[in-house]
Structures are given as structure tokens and as C-alpha cells.
């Protein structure tokens, strides 16, 4: 599938739950009103969407939340999607709290890679940001994942006045371990609209001054827009996802599906297409045809670019946990 601007769309991010076991200050500091489970797609419905998506050339899938591992049976939906003929990759984004205990099941299901969100290596600051004293659990999960041989990426969001000095200890993780540390610029969605992001261009220069030369790494590490650099003496590398100061919309290859079955072609805008009515049609042939029609329609209407630089034009009002971060 190509959108109206000629971009090939081969990647779908799938939220399987809006629930989370952390309360990060920039996501859901006051908690959230959970969506009733009857409104959440079943694993069978998610798999059926993926079956039709693969027929259209969408062959790479990312399982997200909320926190996907709080939903019972998460490894099973990964197995179901991996078993679809034509599926290339199924990966997972997690906060790491439950990763260690579910890692064996995830690997058995065929998980191809894992992204772990981590904004600090300071115990007190981690508790302040997330609401829980669980940093040791996350670090243990990272070590187990790396030891398993699965590709591991650490996703870090730096914010002024919160954790801006954490760039150094986080970068050091890539020296000690064969993983990628990616710095993601905060996007003005939900509570993120109240935070002051740090420019990745400034951060890259800070890292360059500290370590010396950064060598651009042109190897492919996943599905997204991260730009990677290697540093002499490091086992891993450092990546930058610069939605605000390095607009990469011309390379966008994704759509998103919320846990309730709404397709979102762009994170910035409220515009979405509901799959649930089609999924609950009784006639299998009509159901499959309508799912494909909705997938096509959402891709054909994908905007040319986001407008995060002018928050007055951002129409998405849902928190990231309900969209699928």
C-alpha cells in the first residue's frame, strides 16, 4: 500500500490495552479512566485485522499499550500474528516491569525485538517520574533480554527540569551492553503538551563533545525513523528520534490501531477510522472485504505531515496511553 504522497505503508503499531502499571508524569500522572474490556478488541479480532493488513503489504507490527504486558496472554497474540503467512516482524514496546518474568514466553511466541522505555538510571528520580520504586526490576529485565540475544532498544525521553542530565548515564548503557539507546523528542500529545522537550540536535552535539566523533550507523535496526550513531569503544549505539526538530514525515511508513480498533494514520490528528463494526459483521467474506476497505481508506487519507511545531493545529486530544504510544 502507498498513500496519496507515494509513501509505502508497511508497518502498524497495535495497542492491545490502555492500562499501565506505572503513572509517569508526562503520560498519566493522575491515573486514567480505563476503557471497559468489552470495548477492547479481542486477540482474535486483532489477528484478523493483521491478516487483512498483510494482504495489503503491511507486514511489520509493533505491540504497544498502555503497557502491553499487563494484558493477560500478550505472548499469545504475538504468536498469532507471527503465524500469519507473510508477517515479517513482530516487536514489542514495554516499560520492562513484567518483561523479565514473561521473556521466555515472548521468545517462544516468536518476538523479534523489544523496546524498553527508561528515562533515568537514578533510583529516586525513577520513582519520582513513574510513581514506583521499580528501577531494579527494569534493569534486571534489560539484562535478561540482552542475554537472550534478542535485539534490545532503550527509549528515553528527556525533558527540561525533569531528567535532562540523564543523557550521560543512559548513553553509558550502550557502552556496557550491546543495545541501542534512543533519545526521543517529547511530542505535544496529552500531558506531553505541558512539557518542554530537549532538541536532539543540541543533545547530539553534547554527546559529540563528551565522547568525540560520532560515526553514522547506516545499518537497519527496525521500522522507524531513528538515526543511529556508533561511538568508539561502545558495544551498542545511540539513536535519535527527532519528531520536533528533525521532521521525518516524508519517510513515515506507519499507521496505528488503538485498543478499541480505531485506525489512526497520523499521531498528530484526531482523524480515525473505526474497524470494530466491520470486525463484528457475521459474513466472513464481507467482513474481510470491509476491513481491507477501511485499511485502504485510512492509508489513502494519511496526512502529508504532522503539525507538532504549531500546537494550535494539533487536534488529537487523547492521552498517549489510549492511542498506543
From TrEMBL:
The keyword 4Fe-4S applies. [4Fe-4S] cluster 1 binds at residues 20, 24, 27. It holds the Pfam family Radical_SAM. Belongs to the radical SAM superfamily. MoaA family. Monomer and homodimer. GO terms for molecular function: 4 iron, 4 sulfur cluster binding; cyclic pyranopterin monophosphate synthase activity; GTP 3',8'-cyclase activity; GTP binding; metal ion binding; S-adenosyl-L-methionine binding. Keywords: 4Fe-4S, GTP-binding, Iron, Iron-sulfur, Lyase, Metal-binding, Molybdenum cofactor biosynthesis, Nucleotide-binding, S-adenosyl-L-methionine. It catalyses: GTP + AH2 + S-adenosyl-L-methionine = (8S)-3',8-cyclo-7,8-dihydroguanosine 5'-triphosphate + 5'-deoxyadenosine + L-methionine + A + H(+). One of its GO terms (biological process) is Mo-molybdopterin cofactor biosynthetic process. InterPro entries: Aldolase_TIM, Elp3/MiaA/NifB-like_rSAM, MoaA, MoaA-like, MoaA_NifB_PqqE_Fe-S-bd_CS, MoaA_twitch, MoCo_biosynth_MoaA/MoaC, rSAM. It is an enzyme of class 4 (lyase). GTP binds at residues 13, 93, 153, 254-256. Pathway: Cofactor biosynthesis; molybdopterin biosynthesis. The lineage of its organism: Bacteria, Bacillati, Bacillota, Clostridia, Lachnospirales. This is GTP 3',8-cyclase. Binds 2 [4Fe-4S] clusters. Binds 1 [4Fe-4S] cluster coordinated with 3 cysteines and an exchangeable S-adenosyl-L-methionine and 1 [4Fe-4S] cluster coordinated with 3 cysteines and the GTP-derived substrate. S-adenosyl-L-methionine binds at residues 26, 66, 117, 187.
Amino acid at each position: 500500500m502507498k498513500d496519496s504522497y507515494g509513501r509505502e505503508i508497511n508497518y502498524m503499531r497495535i495497542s492491545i490495552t490502555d492500562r499501565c502499571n506505572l503513572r509517569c508524569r508526562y503520560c498519566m500522572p493522575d491515573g486514567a479512566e480505563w476503557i471497559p474490556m468489552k470495548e477492547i478488541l479481542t486477540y482474535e479480532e486483532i489477528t484478523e485485522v493483521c491478516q487483512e493488513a498483510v494482504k495489503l503489504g503491511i507486514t511489520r507490527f509493533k505491540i504497544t499499550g498502555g503497557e502491553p504486558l499487563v494484558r493477560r496472554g500478550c505472548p499469545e497474540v504475538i504468536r498469532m500474528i507471527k503465524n500469519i503467512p507473510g508477517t515479517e516482524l513482530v516487536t514489542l514496546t514495554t516499560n520492562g516491569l513484567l518483561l523479565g518474568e514473561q521473556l521466555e514466553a515472548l521468545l517462544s511466541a516468536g518476538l523479534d525485538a523489544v523496546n524498553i522505555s527508561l528515562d533515568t538510571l537514578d533510583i529516586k528520580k525513577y520513582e519520582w517520574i513513574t510513581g514506583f520504586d521499580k528501577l531494579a526490576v527494569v534493569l534486571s529485565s534489560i539484562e535478561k533480554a540482552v542475554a537472550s540475544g534478542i535485539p534490545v532498544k532503550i527509549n528515553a525521553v528527556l525533558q527540561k527540569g525533569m531528567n535532562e542530565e540523564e543523557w550521560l548515564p543512559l548513553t553509558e548503557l550502550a557502552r556496557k551492553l550491546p543495545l541501542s539507546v534512543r533519545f526521543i523528542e517529547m511530542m505535544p500529545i496529552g500531558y506531553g503538551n505541558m512539557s518542554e522537550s530537549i532538541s536532539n540536535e543540541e543533545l547530539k552535539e553534547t554527546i559529540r563533545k563528551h565522547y568525540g566523533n560520532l560515526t553514522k550507523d547506516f545499518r537497519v535496526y527496525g521500522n522507524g525513523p531513528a538515526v543511529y550513531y556508533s561511538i568508539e569503544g561502545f558495544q551498542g549505539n545511540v539513536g535519535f528520534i527527532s519528531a520536533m526538530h528533525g521532521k521525518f514525515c516524508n519517510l513515515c511508513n506507519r499507521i496505528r490501531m488503538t485498543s478499541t480498533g480505531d485506525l489512526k494514520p497520523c499521531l498528530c490528528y484526531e482523524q480515525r477510522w473505526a474497524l470494530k463494526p466491520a470486525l463484528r459483521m457475521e459474513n466472513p467474506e464481507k467482513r474481510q472485504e470491509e476491513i481491507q476497505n477501511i485499511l485502504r481508506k485510512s492509508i489513502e487519507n494519511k496526512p502529508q505531515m504532522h503539525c507538532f511545531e504549531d500546537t494550535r493545529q494539533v487536534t488529537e486530544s487523547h492521552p498517549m496511553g489510549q492511542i498506543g504510544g
